[in-house]
């Protein structure tokens, strides 16, 4: 399962970096492209801070934070034994990795680089593909945690996660035992 997490993360890094390359080449002259009227637009900015440009003067902190997230997710992902966790961990790993690459390799310099943001949501904030993946992955992981789905696929309190529902199976006696729902 670990290799699937890495594969999903790698695909996300490629897609995110490709869309950022497109944004820099297509939107650098102050171009604004309406995607869904004025609700969703493509508009290029370079973000040295976090969400909503918070902490723009402390870019190096976000570089370290991204590196820590990448390391922690890789460590956790090595223990994954269920598809339910492959996707959220792959999304978070890919999003954190591509942000780390931006911080390390983009202007104005090593560990101080700015993240390319270009998807303008309702004129409230501007993000990128990695941001979408990070938010989606974190929400998915939170849902799995709230449902008690462990990295092994087991449900907290026993039981195995199979397609989102517990199923009955053979007990120690070899007889078919009903699932928790009584079926």
Q: Care to describe what's here?
A:
With about 180 residues, the chain is of the alpha+beta class. It has one domain. The protein has helices at about 1-25, 60-75, 85-105, 130-145, and strands at about 30-35, 40-45, 115-120, 125, 170, 175. The strands form two sheets. A four-stranded antiparallel beta sheet has the order 1-2-3-4. It is globular. Residues about 165-183 have low confidence and may be disordered.
Summarize the SSE layout with pairings:
Elements: H1 2-27, E1 32-36, E2 40-47, H2 59-77, H3 83-105, E3 115-121, E4 125-127, H4 129-146, E5 169-170, E6 176-177
Antiparallel strand pairs: 1-2, 2-3, 3-4, 5-6
Helix pairs in contact: 1-3, 2-3, 3-4
Q: What is the typical, i.e. mean, pLDDT?
A: 87
Shape: globular
H/E element sequence: HEEHHEEHEE
End-to-end CA span: 31 Å
Order of strands in the sheet with most strands: 1-2-3-4
Q: Give the domain tally.
A: 1
The SS-based structural class is alpha+beta
Low-pLDDT runs of 5+ residues are 163-183
Number of strands: 6
Number of DSSP helices? 4
- Give the helix proportion (percent range): 40-55%
Rg of Cα set: 20 Å
Question: Which characteristics define this entry?
Answer:
alpha+beta, 4-stranded antiparallel beta sheet, about 180 residues, 4 helices
Quick summary:
With 183 residues, the protein is of the alpha+beta class.
């Amino acid at each position: 399962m670990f290799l699937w997490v890495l594969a999903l993360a790698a695909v996300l890094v490629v897609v995110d970096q490709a869309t950022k390359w497109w944004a820099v080449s297509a939107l650098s002259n102050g171009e604004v492209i309406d995607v869904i009227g004025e609700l969703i637009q493509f508009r290029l900015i370079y973000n040295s801070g976090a969400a909503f440009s918070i902490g723009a003067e402390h870019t190096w902190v976000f570089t370290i934070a991204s590196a820590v997230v990448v390391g922690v997710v890789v460590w956790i992902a090595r223990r994954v034994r269920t598809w339910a966790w492959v996707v959220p961990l792959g999304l978070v790993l890919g999003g954190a990795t591509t942000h780390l690459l931006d911080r390390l390799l983009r202007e104005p310099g090593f560990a101080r680089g700015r993240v390319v943001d270009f998807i303008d949501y309702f004129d409230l904030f501007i993000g990128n593909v990695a941001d979408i993946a990070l938010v989606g992955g974190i929400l998915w992981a939170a849902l799995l945690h709230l449902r008690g789905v462990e990295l092994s696929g087991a449900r907290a309190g026993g039981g195995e996660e199979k397609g989102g529902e517990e199923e009955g199976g053979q007990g120690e006696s070899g007889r078919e035992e009903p699932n928790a729902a009584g079926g």
